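Sequence design from tokenized structure. All designs in this work follow the same two-part layout: the structure record, then the generated sequence. An example of the structure record is given first.
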């Protein structure tokens, strides 16, 4: 949930926004203004700048219609109302963590400013000088709060005017690579190819300097492109990491480049997209922290783009992306998600309890050793001799469901050392175009197990220790057992460590087969299932398999 603070005169009504009219910071209110000169103090000095607010009355509904001066010019003392000329900063109480923060500066009536905004000491708007054609600047960036307050100042600016701030917990940071004149897609930060700077916290360096103590900043603004052909803005724009010299384009940068982003050390799920909507003249290679993400992808008319998601570990305070080994690699976007669930004794996911009077099935690969008390299902098609297996989802309800082999959809993440039952899985709906393997089965599948007619309690687990790219749904005999936290299913949350969901349902079997499907879900991944007879006359054991 996001919070929007609009800076305006007292009494201004802005829908769904908090109005800050310039009062000094107070702990009780949780936000307010302090003297810029005291920011390094343990307790910065509050300052009242209510006389620095303005409402231009251009549009009653616009967050940009009002503003507050952070540095009211002393030469404006002849104008009424006379503002407070002391440079001011703004603070907002927040729990420590990562936040996606959007800020807007500008003035619909005047262009007499050199706007600058710093968040937690990092420049996010650096010297925006408005014109009659471009009066406002808005930017979104990832900010880490470590002292219980978000701090905003305008050091380095002149007569900076702030319109609004929007703050949202950052489940991930999303970067779109493209040209300066294209607005970033919703939720994305736009990278236009600027050289890396510590103040901004991300940017480009020479590929040759990757891994050195002092990477060399490099501007590749000239290598940004907007194809203006794709429905998806995140795929429509790109930056060349390696612009070919043989193209003889004097306006492009031919020095091979890499990209870095400041991050706290730890584990992150990273998704990278490469490709070009107009040209297939590349051998795309992407390495993240030295790990190969994209290995020699050559586009075809049927597949112009490739997306890869993997878990990486940051140990040097920066995420580094390079294209070493590629040829004319073009990057569209990157998404970075903190993977905060730790695999230690305090945060370990407990092994599931094993019902003594039922049967337990673990879903995984042929080389995965089933947990004690479990039978291993590796994705083979249903057959009556074995008594369980996989069928096509589309054939459910027919006289004879169609068996399907989805062995290629089994996975063993090998990340949860304490819990092998959750460490392995089978994709029930492998997404088309994910491109991680040529052998995967994209046909949506369901699972059946032969039992005597009667009532059964069924326990089922879904999730993935390494990826959060699913809306997990499980239906047992048509009854929804996994509803989780989404509209129709369980959507995992790596920030909260909420990667798995266990559902339960008591169902009645009337056709001799217990049926599990994922209708309504997206990329559902099943870990294990336990089936326990409810009626006393029913029994089920491993010997029946």
């Amino acid at each position: 949930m996001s919070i929007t603070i609009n800076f305006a005169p007292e009494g201004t009504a802005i829908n769904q926004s908090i109005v800050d009219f310039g009062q000094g910071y107070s702990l009780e209110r949780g936000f307010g203004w302090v003297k810029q000169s005291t920011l390094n103090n343990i307790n910065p000095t509050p300052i009242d700048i209510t006389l620095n607010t303005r409402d231009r009355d251009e549009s009653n509904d616009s967050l940009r219609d009002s503003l507050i001066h952070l540095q009211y010019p002393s030469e404006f003392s002849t104008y009424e109302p006379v503002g407070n000329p002391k440079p001011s900063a703004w603070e907002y109480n927040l729990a420590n963590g990562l936040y996606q923060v959007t800020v807007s500066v500008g003035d619909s009536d005047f262009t007499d400013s050199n706007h600058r905004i710093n968040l937690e000491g990092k420049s996010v708007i650096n010297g925006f000088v408005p014109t009659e054609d471009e009066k406002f600047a808005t930017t979104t960036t990832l900010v880490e709060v470590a002292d219980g307050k978000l701090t905003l100042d305008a050091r380095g600016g002149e007569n900076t005017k702030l319109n609004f701030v929007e703050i949202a917990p950052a489940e991930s940071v999303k970067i779109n690579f493209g040209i300066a004149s294209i607005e970033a897609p919703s939720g994305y930060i736009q990278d236009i190819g600027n050289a890396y700077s510590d103040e901004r916290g991300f940017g480009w360096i020479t590929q040759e300097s990757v891994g050195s103590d002092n990477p060399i900043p490099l501007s590749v603004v000239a290598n940004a492109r907007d194809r203006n052909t794709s429905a998806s803005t995140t795929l429509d724009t790109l930056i060349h990491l390696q612009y070919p010299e043989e193209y003889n384009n004097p306006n492009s940068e031919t020095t091979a480049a890499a990209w870095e982003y400041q991050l706290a050390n730890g584990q992150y799920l990273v998704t990278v997209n490469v490709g070009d909507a107009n040209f297939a003249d590349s051998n795309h290679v992407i390495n993240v922290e030295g790990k190969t993400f994209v290995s020699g992808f050559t586009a075809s008319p049927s597949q112009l783009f490739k997306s890869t998601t993997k878990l990486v570990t940051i140990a040097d305070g920066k995420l580094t992306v390079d294209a070493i080994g590629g040829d004319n690699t073009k990057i569209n976007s990157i998404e970075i998600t903190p993977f905060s669930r730790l695999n230690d004794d305090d945060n370990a996911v407990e092994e599931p309890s094993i019902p003594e009077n039922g049967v337990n099935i673990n879903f995984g690969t042929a080389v995965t050793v089933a947990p004690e008390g479990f039978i291993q299902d590796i994705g083979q098609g249903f057959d009556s001799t074995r008594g369980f297996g996989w069928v096509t989802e589309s054939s459910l309800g027919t006289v004879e469901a169609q068996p399907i082999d989805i062995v290629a959809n089994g996975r063993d993440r090998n990340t949860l050392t304490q819990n092998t039952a959750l460490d392995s899985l089978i994709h029930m709906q492998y997404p088309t175009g994910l491109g991680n393997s040529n052998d995967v089965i994209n046909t949506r599948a369901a699972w059946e197990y032969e039992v005597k007619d009667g009532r059964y309690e069924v326990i089922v687990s879904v999730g993935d220790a390494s990826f959060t790219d699913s809306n997990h749904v499980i239906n047992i005999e048509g009854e929804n057992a996994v509803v989780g936290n989404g509209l129709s299913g369980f959507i995992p949350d790596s920030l909260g460590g909420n990667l798995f969901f266990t559902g339960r349902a008591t169902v009645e079997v009337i056709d001799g087969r217990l049926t599990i499907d994922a209708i309504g879900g997206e990329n559902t991944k099943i870990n294990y299932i336990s089936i326990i007879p409810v009626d006393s006359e029913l029994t089920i054991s491993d010997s029946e398999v």
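The chain has two helices and 36 strands. We note this feature because it recurs in several other targets discussed in the main text.
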